[in-house]
């Protein structure tokens, strides 16, 4: 049988309504519903979930009727499994990724990129971007993302957690596709966030090389606190704070990594960052590895 293709008019309607699914995903994640079900180790009813959330999270009491509708919508999108015989909810293979304890958890990613308040506000600015040429973030906040993060600690934490989620998820594929990293003796991850990608690389090679994680001071402070970084590995990973526009590279590495960095800067600033890294890389006869999402012809998006 041939592959089933959704009729074009239904694809249009589905796309127009995708924000509903994204909102359901965001709501059950921010309410810690997957974690609540996992902790209970059994299916829970809507009323049981409400009681636990009200007691443990300290929110104003949730409206039972509306919460049940959110859970029902989540089940419709296969984010939860609804057992119709007793109206209880359990996790699905999808919602397992929304728990904090999952080794490839996407909880932070969802809280950052799903239809959260920030992303919803920014998306509404798209029509203005066509005329101003600014990013959606700058159109709303009058400054770019990285500049705004300095003044918004809560969003900074969300951003760091979201980036850490994606790094842990895509690190194995990058390591497999680029085995050169295994020959390095000292890897410097420039703009490495919480250190998730660098940790994944070093652990894959049994910490036979050392690493330096470089990022903004607030990010580095956060990286010292995250629970996946055992203090024992600081023998192998140095945490260095600074900024891209200053004299950022005062350490010698034979491999410098810029992962998901250049996309956040203008062409002029990206060239400035590259020139700074290049000057040190040339001095040390090192290699610069740039990892970004690249748009190819057709419908594909690839890592390069």
TrEMBL record:
GO biological process terms on file: methylation
Pfam families: Dimerisation, Methyltransf_2
GO terms assigned for molecular function: O-methyltransferase activity; protein dimerization activity
All copies of domain O-methyltransferase dimerisation, residue ranges: 15-100
Keyword tags: Methyltransferase, S-adenosyl-L-methionine, Transferase
InterPro entries (UniProt xref): COMT-like (IPR016461), COMT_C (IPR001077), COMT_dimerisation (IPR012967), SAM-dependent_MTases_sf (IPR029063), WH-like_DNA-bd_sf (IPR036388), WH_DNA-bd_sf (IPR036390)
SUPFAM superfamilies membership: S-adenosyl-L-methionine-dependent methyltransferases, Winged helix' DNA-binding domain
The keyword Methyltransferase is assigned to this record: yes
O-methyltransferase C-terminal domain segment(s): 134-301
The name this protein goes by in its record: Uncharacterized protein
UniProt source species: Amphimedon queenslandica (Sponge)
């Amino acid at each position: 049988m041939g592959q089933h293709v959704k009729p074009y008019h239904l694809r249009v309607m589905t796309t127009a309504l995708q924000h509903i699914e994204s909102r359901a995903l965001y709501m059950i994640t921010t309410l810690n519903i997957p974690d609540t079900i996992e902790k209970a180790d059994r299916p829970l009813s809507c009323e049981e979930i409400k009681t636990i959330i009200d007691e443990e999270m300290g929110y104003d009491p949730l409206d039972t009727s509306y919460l049940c509708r959110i859970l029902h919508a989540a089940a419709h999108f296969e984010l939860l499994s609804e057992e119709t015989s007793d109206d209880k909810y359990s996790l699905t293979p999808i919602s397992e990724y929304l728990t904090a304890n999952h080794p490839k958890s996407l909880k932070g990613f969802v809280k950052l990129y799903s239809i959260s308040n920030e992303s919803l506000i920014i998306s509404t600015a798209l029509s203005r971007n066509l005329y101003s040429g600014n990013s959606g973030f700058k159109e709303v906040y009058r400054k770019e993302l990285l500049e705004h993060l300095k003044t918004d600690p809560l969003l900074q934490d969300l951003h760091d957690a979201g980036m850490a989620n994606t790094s842990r998820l895509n690190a194995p594929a990058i390591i497999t596709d680029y085995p050169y990293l295994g020959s390095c003796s000292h890897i410097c991850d420039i703009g490495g966030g919480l250190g998730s990608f660098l940790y994944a690389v070093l652990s894959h090679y049994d910490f036979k090389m050392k690493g330096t994680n470089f990022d903004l001071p607030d990010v580095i402070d956060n990286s010292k606190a995250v629970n996946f970084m055992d203090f024992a590995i600081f023998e192998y990973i140095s945490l260095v704070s600074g900024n891209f526009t200053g004299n950022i590279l005062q350490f010698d590495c034979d491999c410098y990594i810029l992962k998901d960095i250049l996309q956040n800067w203008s062409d002029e600033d990206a060239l400035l960052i590259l020139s700074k890294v290049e000057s040190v890389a040339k001095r040390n006869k090192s290699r610069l590895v740039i990892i970004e999402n690249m748009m190819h012809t057709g419908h594909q998006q690839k890592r390069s």
